[in-house]
Design a protein that fits this description.
Structural class: alpha/beta
Largest sheet: 7 strands, parallel
Shape: globular
Helix content: 25-40%
Number of strands: 9
Mean pLDDT: 90
Order of helices and strands: EHEEHEHEHEHEHHEHHEH
Amino acid sequence: MIHIGEGRRTLARAFHLAVPGANERMPMNPRFDFSGRTAIVTGAARGIGSVMLHRFVESGAGVVAADRDTTGLAESCTGLDETRVIALTADVSTPEGAARIVAAAVDHFGRLDICVNNAAVAPHAALLEERVEVWDLVYAVNCRGTFLMTQAAARAMIAGGAGGRIVNFSSGVSGTGSPGAAAYASSRAAVESFTRVAAIELAPHDILVNAVSPGLIDTQPKPLPPVMAERLGRRIPSLPLARPGEPEEVASVVLFLASDLSSYVTGAVWNVDGGAGIGSRPTGQIIDDDPRYDWVTGKGPA
């Protein structure tokens, strides 16, 4: 059981924002059973990746938790059942790294059912100041890493003969653009396209491939850097739900896509953005003061 009534309001409270339902707890109870199944979670050292790791283990799965950050990975795995978690320091952007992660799952747990490709980097720079080596690194992790992990995981799933689930990660910025995000946004858009192709090619093997596209999620460093604080202070009130999401809310969608409940879902991009991709929160009263359509509304002669 997950309670999000308090945790999800941390960032909103930092900006003294009024959050709907702030005085009562709002229980969210998605329950999944992954007993006997094996999952891979990359980028598991912090944020959404760490939460997904815990959720899969709590739901009965054996999990390979992978990340480049050995220290963060160890902290993320603290308190979990050591018989059901393998912490593996690896680089998903290399064929060797991807192969090691998948091999760890198969060798230790005997199978691979779920692969969550969450590992990513998101440095920001103005377009005219972007350095090619940074651009290449963003694409190496976000795109090549997703490709290599998908390929290696799919091969293992096909060999196992039981199908599987692959969940990739995109971002809301992939469809809207954002200053300073040329490399990151375009790499995420590439992941979405790749996800659709992979879904088509792997469908005959009963491997479903989907992507999750989070919006503003409360994973920012605390205390907030001044420029980030100023930017978020403007952005959060304009979101349709007027609050950032919590990592648990993204994890719930991922677990759904990894479960049997999503058995007829593939090639889709799931927006977990509180409506940010469709518009802004309404402000003030909605008034129709355009006289051209008075004949429609009955305000004037037909």
